[in-house]
């Protein structure tokens, strides 16, 4: 039976030793001292370990059931959601004006990682509700905000995002759901939406659906899409619930993982909806929170890798099999535990170096979102917008690799349901797909973000790396981090240069987009490991007595720098190979 | 609903254009002309497409059920097995003396690939039976052979291999199943075996279990293991079935994939068994057919990649979404099909170049097994023994990657059960684990095979690559294949050199074992693509009118040479990084 052990210590290290959050000049961050964040993380960690994690297998095995239009979630889910609600976790980073706790986004992501590690499927219910909250908060009228936000913040009501239809997901210009204007200013929505996470359940009194639809006679394609609020139960002016609206769950998707989450077919049969945001500007309204949403999915990839690694590590320490090649390590046992075998160690180090570096990357990006929001800092906004596709794509691609590698540590046990390793793989798998497939992330990165504001943000990123390299050039101990980072960063620049030189040949550029995204991700993790190493040396120099912790960071970082980061050269080579061989085969000849 | 389209055309190309099997000096291969193999493959392909493939989803959804000691297989499985039995496919490469068809192993692998693509779980029932047949054929007495083989060949009886116990899989020295000698020369076996594929079912009248067990008082560890034949029903001297033996299925494993195959807990409660092979030499007897067994698993990895690719390709041609960056490709549709997008094309080319190159590698290795068997050729035996861990590890690791990449092509549909892409991933996953995990393959390669016979076989492999390079050095058209192959081969030699120079430091060598296995695999596929290119140019030069087919091979090969093969430099770098960072972290500090 898998377990989850909170990663509070490592999060604390990243927040305070590496990112030094409480010293950052961001409103609200001054409160984030070690004591405060420690207390929050400890409490959040307990819920993760004791409340959410024990339901992860239950959720996977039971799944959700559609019973006469009503979705039954797995046993225990409602109680667990109540714990989150009662503790104020569902409104953790929400606006205090509507009952939220107003905590920095960065801290909410730290909490979110642990909760998502413990139970990804369950956390999607409040997760989607948060997305709905954020869109209404950004685009709703004062009246709409007053009407919906407090109950979304408290999770008294749930929320959903309705984009996909059977014929379109990525290309929303093809949607067919219609919104017919009524005389009273409302709309009647008709159509079918699919893959609606948390689309229907009874853990909340009401569900607020945000739905993309087209008003007949509007512009074609993406420019004619508007966003609507469609409540499951109509909301009276006094806030009480009225009649059931004409929206219903028409089916549950049978899927590879996240069985505990209800993935619904939603049917709109003349359902009453309210326009939110500007007419025909629905895409903009839906995607306002895109950075947060995509960071959240990257976080899921990392979170699954983290819990998978923990369990694989415990198995590797426990399982005995054969003797170490360098001689018996545990003579008291009939065989040595498999952690003594180099290939098992390699797999564990792959996972560990990814999880710890990825966590730093994620929390760093989160601080930039806070900075952009709280300081209205356009540079931070630009930089994080550039990094978001990298973060989403890299943390989920490599997160899946890590779950597969964790599963491999178990040998045959990893394939059985009993040990739970295979669930982490299946749950993690969706993170590469939803919220824009990783191919779409790569396209966004190369096709839009790289050149946005005349390349200002990518130049700022290079500058940041260069500054770090320069600052540490004279520290001999740092050479084993700085030298490979320099090489990797040079590869990234060369790849960027290739795109600039081939801007007129989009097939050449886009053929290498996924490789470029990985190249970029490696450089980000290389930079993080450099910063982690620096922070670790600083702690050791300062006489911090937890030497094992900091020295482990250095070993793990060296692993990343010597065995993972150098992939950048190969990735550059693929980028520079262009599109000829990728696009060379006629479609008819496949 | 997924489909399977037989790969007969490509197999035919590999057998005749690339490997020129009928010209090889191997007894029985002269029969393998194009007409003959074409007829066999066509028939086998029809069964794959029409009989086996339609049951693949059924098997996954229904799984097996244990009902009062009886295992119920999914609907339709028994009928399908009867088709294989009636067509003589279960004894296709078996000894004609016992009713087999005596076909070359190479051709049986070609057939096996298609059948395994169509339904991996179902094919494991005859697959395990074949393993049991092979062990009895190699080690049984004449009496045992006469008693068991004809019914195993015809699949009137099934067969199994019983190795793993709860406390041990990889390290069989730890097994506890006891075999107590009886006065009549038989043994009474007691113990529990787990993960026994096809351990119990009613598709055959009897099941012959091969069981590893220890005779009390024998040597400790691996040297005290013997192999026993334990029939489910006792077999009378006249061949009729007698009493039920004391062996029973105690449970079915719940697992990630291959749900259609019964993975059984087998309980031996004083079951009557017969020693097969020499006393205490059970490991040797069980593993005689290791090359074939491991090639068979590598084949499964390739087969799942092949069917996954086919389905992803069909989806990519059909699904419309957005417009191609270089301008509209299909103006008659509301959007272009996604195959026009470079990142989708990249994924498809990754899969295609792996599947086609891997197929050639697999069939080439199979010819060496035939050569070693039929010509008693020790060099062929040595070479294929060297390549088997590469083949098993590389084709399953990369096979899984290909299934995941195929799934990614579908976007959200890939995560749903309905489209079937996710089943290919789940089924393929086991191939990296069983028959020796891929870590064990890497260990076998670096720790044993590389240095076996004083490195004679690896030198022969290098010679073979060198000869191919030299033979084509003057052909300008071949330069784009030869140049990268030369570079990759140099990387492989350098990695081999590293191991030689660090033979005394096993942790250094074994830390890079998995990377070396991949490096070796790439060189094998590079060599195959070189040979495929040469064969394609030869066909084009000869005026073969199927120019599209051969030109497609060249494009696909160039893709592999420019975008996959160059990974060898990175893999070499990891090998040369040694063990310091891999083994540097104390176990206590993880």
TrEMBL record, chains A, B:
Top-level class of the enzyme under EC nomenclature: oxidoreductase
Domain Acetyl-CoA dehydrogenase-like C-terminal, first and last residues per copy: 461-586
Co-factor requirement: FAD
Alphabetical list of Pfam families matching this protein: Acyl-CoA_dh_1, Acyl-CoA_dh_C, Acyl-CoA_dh_M, Acyl-CoA_dh_N
Reactions listed under catalytic activity: 3-(methylsulfanyl)propanoyl-CoA + oxidized [electron-transfer flavoprotein] + H(+) = 3-(methylsulfanyl)acryloyl-CoA + reduced [electron-transfer flavoprotein]
Keyword vocabulary terms for this entry: FAD, Flavoprotein, Oxidoreductase
Gene Ontology terms for molecular function: flavin adenine dinucleotide binding; oxidoreductase activity, acting on the CH-CH group of donors
Gene3D superfamilies documented for this protein: Acyl-CoA dehydrogenase/oxidase, N-terminal domain, Butyryl-CoA Dehydrogenase, subunit A, domain 2, Butyryl-CoA Dehydrogenase, subunit A, domain 3
Location of the Acyl-CoA oxidase/dehydrogenase middle domain: 161-269
Domain Acyl-CoA dehydrogenase/oxidase N-terminal: from-to ranges: 78-154
Role noted for this protein: Involved in the assimilation of dimethylsulphoniopropionate (DMSP), an important compound in the fixation of carbon in marine phytoplankton, by mediating the conversion of 3-(methylthio)propanoyl-CoA (MMPA-CoA) to 3-(methylthio)acryloyl-CoA (MTA-CoA).
Protein name as annotated: 3-methylmercaptopropionyl-CoA dehydrogenase
